[in-house]
Give the backbone structure.
Amino acid sequence: MEFTLPEYTRHKDNKRLDNIPGSYGLPVVGNTFRFVVQPFAVLDQNYRRYGPVFKASLTFQKFVCALGPDFIQQLMLDTSQSFSTRMGYEGPLGDFFAGGLLMRDFDEHKFHRRIMQTAFKTDAMRTYVELMHPVIDREMGRWGQDSGFHFYPNIKTLLLDVGARVFLGMDLEGPETRALNQSFVDMNDGILALIRRDWPGLRYRKGMNGRRALEKFFFELVPQRRGAQGNDMATYFANEKSEDGEYYSDQVVGEHLIFLLLAAHDTTTSALTMAAYYLANDQQWQQRLREGLQALGRDHLEYGDLGGAIPDLDNCFKEVLRMNPPVPMLMRRTVKEVEVGGFQLQPHTMLQVSPLYTHRMEEWWSNPHQFDPDRFAREEHKQHSFLWAPFGGGAHKCIGLHFADMLFKTALSRLLLSYRVSFAKPGQYPGRIQHFPFAKPMDNLPLKLERL
Ligand code: HEM
């Protein structure tokens, strides 16, 4: 089915926000540099000065910020079809996200989300857990031997390998996997470039070259997987048919796969890195989780152990995502005039809501800056259905949330059953955290792993 380019995509952002309180800060850069270092503090200062809805210039872009669970709910549920996800992400990320689900709105989005249906059904998910175990065992088995062990680069490599196996069904040690991983890393790096021009010598060009290499690879891979048997996501996607009984084109499927890899990789890398950081600091919680896992009497989690089956592990997952949501700000652009928090927003106005801020609001959470997984046992998050929203909600709600749950719990359990984890040096907590594009300790988390 062909969808024509919606009319609202042809407009520039509305920058006339005179009716909205707030300040843009410095010319061009606004408050970007402070925001990147202390996002919560900057949002909190604005919230206290101007109220929950204000204008700001953060991340080199002018937009309206609406803080709190009500606004996450309004934007995510979008009952009046007022907010374009595509135009929210187009400016900063459009070149890299091209063709991905977040770059499609309304009916077109619904049509495309179907491509991913089979790949995220229970039977498929069950097999992914089985595919993950040997990769995680192999990689983690090599850890801990090196005295300069840093958690972040190691979990990143491990998760790239899990991705190659589960998403693409590829041989892990092959040169093709290494080249593919490199293109992927280059693309991720390009996303951060300050000068956003595809010109020789620039970081952005390197990122776009990574993207082009991935496109070439995927557009060739998809036809090879048609009619093939396989329990990896690429094979599921390639064999999915539309309601008219037609395969989706190689380009459409390839672009969805690239976006999926992007959406899956850094988010789970960040969550596991921050979990290791909090648990290295909190030995009591680490031991409590380990004992709970040992009590199962298995050295591997099974599919049935995931979801909410082991409450401590589940609460720990939730708490890590509360403290440092891998997607800290959710972006949208209005497609028509709409009221938000008592303010009329004109069409084409950029708007952001923030899990990062909402997850630490004192009005809702007890000791919000403290790592305390038991708050989920006390059901603090149940006061509002969008108070804890690391996966967004509504039509664009993360399609990989159960997959992320499985991967997080499978990898964390393997780690805790294999090693006692502590900081490599004194003074690592509280450490300096890099918040963008994804949370991780600035020092890449040097850890001491003692084999159990
Ligand atoms: C802890 C890990 C993860 C977090 C916190 C996370 C968070 C999110 C959020 C907040 C959104 C919605 C963005 C918006 O509405 O603006 C989203 C969308 C998405 N995520 Fe995730 N994600 C995670 C892992 C994954 C994984 C593992 C996959 C794939 C296996 C995945 C695939 C996607 C896709 C395809 C979308 C777009 C959905 C749509 O537009 O319909 N994510 N994710």
User: Anything to note?
Assistant: Residues 250-281 form the longest helix (32 residues).
